[in-house]
Design brief:
The chain is of the alpha+beta class. The chain contains 3 helices and 6 strands, in the order βαβαββαββ. The protein has one domain (about 1-95): Glutaredoxin (3-Layer(aba) Sandwich). It is globular and about 40 Å long.
Length: about 120
């Protein structure tokens, strides 16, 4: 999973949202690529960025899975990042019937359970 965060130094909402992005990504262990739209014109053009701040989540094959412009709460960002992190983990990264999961529960710890809990729907 690749997360792109498009912002600009003159953007007030970007300044308030960046600490939220940093906090949520560090808690989840998700790497975020920070793109300054004033200094790097190629990526904003490639992804048709028309406003900042904008978060884009790319899948394992580079396809766009999620896009959101504007500021959001830490809880909302945490939920969205976590949802796509697990989607990609389940669909692209690990064999379906051989792993144990640890599901992060925001503010409540971690619950573990085995893969047998899920149905094999592939």
């Amino acid at each position: 999973m690749q997360v792109l965060y498009f912002s600009a130094p003159w953007c007030g909402p970007c300044k308030t949202f960046k600490p939220v992005v940093e906090s949520a990504s560090s808690e989840l262990g998700v790497h975020v690529n920070y793109v300054n739209v004033d200094y790097d014109a190629s990526l904003p053009q490639k992804y048709s960025i028309t406003s900042v701040p904008t978060i884009i989540i790319l899948g394992a094959t580079g396809d766009e899975l999620y896009r959101k412009s504007g500021v959001m709460s830490k809880d909302e960002l945490f939920r969205d990042l976590n949802k796509f992190r697990w989607y990609l983990y389940l669909n692209y990264e690990k064999p379906f019937n051989t792993i144990d999961f640890k599901v992060g529960c925001y503010n409540t710890g971690v619950i573990s359970f085995t893969r047998n809990f899920f149905s094999n729907s592939r």
